[in-house]
Amino acid sequence: MIGGGCASLAAAFELTRPELKGAYHVTVYQVGWRLGGKGASGRGPADRIEEHGLHIWLGFYENAFRLIRDCYKELGRDPEKCPIARWDDAFFQDSHVGVADKSGSGWLQWTTFFPPVDGRPGDPLGKDNPFTIAAYTKQAIKLVQALLLGVQTRGGSSVNSDAGVRDAASEPEKIVDLVKRALKYGLLGTTAGLAQAATRLDMILDSSLSGSARSALLQSLREITRAARETLERLSGKDDETRYVWEIIDLVVAILTGIVRHGIVTHPHGLDAINDYECREWLKLNGASESSVNSGFVRGLFDLAMAYPGGDTERPALAAGQAVRGALRMFFTYRGALFWKMRAGMGDVVFAPLYEVLKKRGVSFRFFHRLENVRLVDPSRLRPGERRYVEALDFDVQAHVKSQRRGDEVGFTSAVEYEPLIDVRGLPCWPSAPSYEQLVDGEQVRREGWDFESFWDRRKVESKSLQVGKDFDLVVLGIGIGAIRHVCRELVESDTRWRDMVDHVQSVPTQAFQIWMSESMQELGWAGPPVSLSAFVKPFDTWADMTHLGEQERWPTQPRSIAYFCSVLADPPLTPGRDDKDYPRRRKAEVRENAIRFLKNDVVHLWPRASDAPGSFRWQLLLAPDDRGKADTPSSEAVFDSQYWTANVNPSDRYVLALPGSIKYRISPLDNTYDNLTIAGDWTACGFTEGCVEAAVMSGRLAAHALAKSPSLAAIIGYDHP
Amino acid sequence: MEPRVKREDPERVEPIRAWETLFRAEEAQPKPDVATSDSSAKNKSETGSWDEIASRAVRRGYEVIEEQINEGRKIAERVRGYSDDVRKANDDSTRLIERSMRFYTDVGYLWFELMESLLRNQALRDGLRPTNGTNGGDAHAKNGSGNGASGGQHNDVEIELISPYPTTVSLDLRSTPDATLTVPALRAADDSKPPLADIAFHAGAARPVLRIKIPEGQPADTYSGVVVDARTHQPRGTLCVSVRDAAAAT
């Protein structure tokens, strides 16, 4: 396994399941000191959690939750000794989703409560199976209810649908309000119109039907859309709440129209048939209004997918088919809650348990190994009919572990392994820096500031080549798409499919910052529940209240709130050369400036009391890890330096995009062009072609299937899906 | 020298994107455990017959409608309770109750209808056929009301239409009308048009009679609504009446 992210570790987990009776010996080669890839996290000063970005798992991540549930089960941690012993200690449900929307010169925040759904992600698909038309329709009703009745503006008096019903007995006014709201939207005539369209939908689904029938249905849908748009325009600017709901209705009708117009229901490629369209253009093509496609709801979905090529937020782009599939999966197949948050860092709750289980199973880990080249066999040496294959893997070894002799280990020897985890109050965690004391010349390495995770820091202690047949048989290449061009030069040069893939499947750098504050969100003026909110002002369009993490950290003064922000980061006009060692530092400084500007000018829309004058932020709110009390906290922006921020610019850290016209260039982990190589990562053709944990795990499971025919394709949930 | 280890060619390299995947039987979904071979073909064989699938889907569809109506009823009861206890019941609150019930019924009806439309589609039925011949011979759709999904069969009801305009009636009952049925007013998409209210079921000599009277001056449009069991208030089907302009018809 090359790379220790979700995809590789999922593949390793599958290949070493006890049911396979030890058929596969797995070695994971990892650059630097920690596993996790884009999901890696570390413990910094005050044991605070430092992430690559904001990680929230969605309730439809069936494969990812199954993996992590199996992992915790096998791990068998003692709840008396470990604060996160079971998977449901590690994750909790978060049903509040926020979207920010421009209104006049200010911002409105919509918070929607998505009702809990039966079951939990990763449960066996039995009676709660979300992958049926009936379940989709049932969930659609809940969605309608959530959107029509559950929407809540900041400072508004309305409540979510569940809470509304719960509170009804004691507060009858709320129920009257609830009914009035239902009628408000019901009386707009949409349901009757949609019902009429739906009764005719079967006509168009019949492939033998004439073109006139198709026209008739499209005409009907167009009329509904026009009516919706007229109503929308009439209401626009007068009633934000009605406008918000109408925009969603307008989008739903546009999707229905598009599905009919493009014959998607009977198309063998399902939603992939429209992947060459840009999502918003496709929606407009099918009648959605300009206002709807620019609504907070749509922008939120784009933010979630980081759908800004080159990091240019003025140029959003998302493949229409994957966008619709993503929305269907997100809203219609979630179990438990729409969002699931982690109780500690992603490294702590996901990668540390995976590491421990895999170690117990006998998997070897070679940290400080940076892949430099994947070498193919010379075609002239192939026997007749033989396919090309990977002959060697060239690594730079970044450090030696003490007691391990230079050039001593390869494969399954008894070489001393680096011990990567630290104990934080009983919880095995990854540190934010390597354990230098385990490394040969570790103190010198620390003093010289070797950055093991930087693509631009090429320092090494040794070069090493692994040979096929001697050091490995099969390769799972599980690095990020951004790195493929650099380490698979021969593949990219000689194989047009690989060249097309790296040319078309683009990725984008990301930026994130985390702040720890001395006042609660309520004290800062946030009136709603703890929320994950998107579509906010750039450059940090996404915010999540992560205050719950404070209990896992060790602060001298306990933070009363913790906030994570993230978004894309623009690419520079010219790609920096590999000798530009200062590049990561410059980009990190840029993120610092972005964050400070954002806190001074924009965060006031979320937290009105975080500012005491226009264009200012109360810097004394920020807690430093060595703070002993608020009184000593400096009040200048320099205090921001005590917080955490990151510029994820390494090629392998870049976030993969689902751009229109690009999906068809992805290569599947099942592809067998090179018969000892498979690929794994959320950038592959893994069924769900959007960057996320679920896609990564699906690809890892596909890679395992490619090697071992296990798990079965049918067991990879959601792989076969329109 | 030992031969080099090679991967075997996979059975396929792409996901199945056809919508039939959403029609797989719930029970047929695989457990996430390790399997030693690709069981996708096997999975198909477990899809079940068309009748079974349709029957399950219809059952779920009813659950959907019931859930909607129950939601509406819960709210209506609470409003009514509030009105009775705290205030005198008045026209406004009664109207609220009626409309909220209607809203929920409409939404439930909409989704059920959508689902049934999908199930009636021949192309999708074809999609349910086994691709490898592993599913025996009974995956073809059957017409008629045996297991209730194909709809459109209402030979058990006589329709009596009184209309000054060319009119088409489409009645879609999901079960034999042994229950006492009633039809709330049918509405057009355009709310400004008056609903069709003069519609009722009557006992006939051999079978029930659905009497529909279109009044003079009724605007041309399609009016639709749900057929309800008068006793349980459960939906039993849909009724769609298309009134055309007399001039246009000639």
Walk me through this protein's architecture:
The complex is a heterodimer of chains A (722) and B (250). Chain A contains 22 helices and 24 strands. The radius of gyration of chain A is 26 Å and the shape is globular. With 722 residues, chain A is of the alpha+beta class. Chain A starts with 5 loop residues before the first helix and ends in a 14-residue tail after the last helix. Mean pLDDT of chain A is 85; it is low at 148-214 and 410-414. Helices cover 34% and strands 15% of the residues of chain A. In chain A, α10 (240-261) crosses α11 (279-285) and α11 (279-285) crosses α14 (320-332). In chain A, the strands form 8 sheets. Chain A has an 8-stranded mixed β-sheet. In chain B, a hairpin with a 6-residue loop joins β4 (199-202) and β5 (209-213). Chain B has a 4-stranded antiparallel β-sheet with strand order 2-7-6-3, with helices on one face. A 3-stranded mixed β-sheet of chain B has the order 1-5-4, with no helix packed on it. Helices cover 33% and strands 16% of the residues of chain B. Chain B is of the alpha+beta class and 250 residues long. In chain B, α2 (50-86) packs antiparallel against α3 (91-120). Chain B is elongated. Chains A and B meet through α2, α4, α6, α7 and α8 of A and α1, α2, α3 and α4 of B.
Task: Note the beta-strand portion of chain B.
Answer: 15-25%
**Can you tell me the overall shape of chain A?**
globular
N/C terminus separation of chain A: 31 Å
Task: Give the count of helical stretches of chain B.
Answer: 5
Mean of pLDDT of chain A: 85
Helix/strand order of chain B, N-terminal first: HHHHEEEEEEEH
Radius of gyration over C-alpha positions of chain B, nearest whole angstrom: 24 Å
Q: Main sheet of chain A?
A: 8 strands, mixed
Most extensive interface, residues per chain? A-B, 95 and 90 residues
Helical proportion of chain B, percent range: 25-40%
Based on helices, strands and strand pairing, what is the structural class of chain B?
alpha+beta
Shape type of chain B: elongated
DSSP summary, beta strand count of chain B: 7
* First-to-last CA distance of chain B: 89 Å
Low confidence ranges of chain B: 23-51, 53-58, 85-93, 117-154
